[in-house]
## 1
Amino acid sequence: MLIRPSELKRRGILGMNRRNLDYIGRHNARHLFPLVDNKIKTKRLAREYGVPTPTLRHVIDTQHSIRDLGEQLRGLDGFAIKPAKGAGGKGIMVIRKVTDGLFVKGSGQTIDLEGLKRHCSNILAGLHSLAGSPDSVIIEDLIDPDPYFRDLSVEGVPDIRVIIFRGIPVMAMLRLSTHASDGKANLHQGAIGVGLDLATGHCVHAVQYSNRVLTHPDTGVTLDRIAIPDWENLLTLAASCHDLAGLGYLGADLVVDQTRGPLLLELNARPGLAIQVANGEGLLPRLQRVENLERVSPDAAERAGFAMTHFARQPARPTA
């Protein structure tokens, strides 16, 4: 369905050109981009600021080093292989277990050691990186999802994307992988986006392929009953990412581990706009409200509290 530009404006929808010029261009210094475009640098920064992330096991920087991959993986029952400069979930391979010398992926398919080496070689060559530049391979521990999240998704771990402007969270969504998305939390590949009320962490709207959905197509979970536990702490963690990265406009992807609690998965200096579709609401009014503030608190918890107070919504209860 086509929507007239005047209707998009009325709904407060932020378009890509305006995002790039008015928010990324004006509020994100270019020299800071490498800090979030490279997951290794992000992890180092997070460690300095006391922000928890998934445990890093190994980094591979050269093709020559791939020959030692078998030894590096010895003793690891499950792990994730990622490109340091990847975006949109590209190049991520999740290994759930090792059986009879074969590595079992999240989908249940298997791959041998030589297949993993080829995958790492492709990552180093820049196949999955931003602009195709040479890359590094990250091997890190798997997330053991909090029990609340375990049955919400298929073949992948649910994550929470939060858009932060001037240190204040302005919009959030829960991303649920599906069979169609091959375990990836990417809305363009068929994952479900669940818009979240910033006051409570409750579902307010949910979409798949930009169409409204009420239940998860694979698990049958009723989406409008979702309410994220420990929401205030999650939102405070998201707000603190502004202090870590120094970017005025950014996206933070968070996960909740059963043992370690909320973790920062990655940061994004150019977060996508599909979060508006997931929420059924435009970003512009919230961004403009924050932009008009004369003073923003230096305290992350206070900034999260501002978001909870000023950007609250009532969950949308669909009729039968």
## 2
Amino acid sequence: MVINNSLKGVLEGYASGEISLEEAELLIGGLRLDMIGSCAKIDTGRNIRCGIPEVVLSENKDLPHLISIVDKITQANGRCLASRVTPAQVEELTKFAVEKGYIHEYNPEGRMFIMTRDEKVKARCEKRTGGIVGIITAGTSDIRVAEEAKVIAQEMGCVVKTAYDAGAAGIHRLFPAVKDLLDAHAFVVCAGREGTLPTVIAGLVDRPVIGVPVSVGYGYMGGGEAALASMLQSCAVLTVVNIDAGFTAGAYAALIANMAAGASGSGNAKNAENADEQR
């Protein structure tokens, strides 16, 4: 969806011949709300207004409703992301995509399902903006949240570099990991238990850091509450999102990275193209 992240982007795509007149009309028309029976109002214009694609939260949705919503967004925007998908939902979404001739991808760790209308849209969505996001986790148990953040940041056009299992309990692991991510425009740092790692990272880098408390830990406040409280009381300057909110963190980091890449010109775009993207 990179080329469609603003009304200006749609018009530029049409002027360059990358988007047909019909596609441009459809995308601009996406500023409306589309209804699906009485169950959902689909904001097909979110990407144009906000630079963040509409993402369908799959938790607690009936399969018929979920499939109808994903299909409607795929038709309207050419592409749709569904988050927090269950194995049963993945199975049915895959069957539906095959029947419709849609391209589909699934990230099992991040529990993200992507449905794309055709190869032309897929190629357009895989263009990079020049923004670079670094994602770090304290432990391997935090990877599921980190992968959710990674998918949305990539969907918004960023190169994503990751360093997993670099926690503060073995701080010697941290410095090599951070060194490889120093060209990132923004960092997402996921940590459970006492949630120390975002504070440490924020004290080492001169870029925005977004802390994500993860629902990992034992006993009292072990569901992410201790990590959240710790990050909110950080002595370093960082932003904190809700527990397990990988999507929010990834989207916020991508907005920062895309603005930074746009402000600094083509040099960052070239750096992003040459970066070792970890997918």
## 3
Amino acid sequence: MPRSDSSDRSSRSDTATPEPSRGGARLVRVPDDRDGQRLDNFLSGQLKGVPKSLIYKIVRSGQVRVNGGRAKAERKLAGGDEVRIPPVRVAEPGQATTPAKGLLEAMEASIVFEDARLLAISKPSGIASHGGSGISHGAIETLRALRPGQSLELVHRLDRDTSGLLVVAKKRSALTELQALMREDASVRGRGIHKRYLTLLVGRMPDGVMSVDAPLHVGLRQGGERHVQVNPQGKPSLSHFSVIERRGGQSYCEVRIETGRTHQIRVHAQHIGHPVAGDPKYGDEAANRRLREQAGLKRMFLHASTLEFSLDDGRTPYLLNAPLPPELAAVLDRLG
């Protein structure tokens, strides 16, 4: 099992060779070690300090071209591809682009594991995984501000209101292998990543393990807000809920998920009639108000507690843990 080693500072920053182009845009040849990287993530590395929302906007508008053609943000690049990047105004030094001191301190304190290629934090609730949609600094931007000399890339994401384990790759090789594990590619068949969450569900769940096998479809509401529903046309989604104990008529549970769909646990919990306590989108409004008044629950009770996986073709196992945050432990205590 790997040991934490916070002394590694050797990872290099993203680099690519720019070539001049007409109209203020530039052509950047994708380095071989970026083969397979998503276009939006590649652009984030090239356009330091530019919000993700603006990156998506210039991609959607067709200003970004790959090998001369329009491309979507999720396109996987190949080594040697030529990416046209339009001129984008980046804030000048001295402008307010640095995360607030309190956020920097909170992110430094949230680190629960680090070695030469990975860094894991226990992300606080209320902090987005990345900036965009009016958010200047998410977890990854704040970590990059803390570690300006390192190349840091998000391996996965957590909902803004969900706390818990968020893994960041410090080396490209680790990012590539972990993303293959997330996708369960043929090259890593039989391994995958085991994810466990802790949650408080409204009402009394039955004993034993309740498996929810219900496809999920992501739709957009007016204003662009994502809303997920159980729908036969959706993607296969599988969650396993098991009761740890009952407190104050509610069910404190561990959830193991075999797929990683948007809002999966929250929608599956709603689907079985036991929504996540404190969930403002899919929860029970009356129950949320009651739990806030009686137990002081001021956030969604959902925490990513454990990640288990292996790197180096299965030779190096990792078991990462993030303890339940104090504010959620206090809610359990008040419920008796």
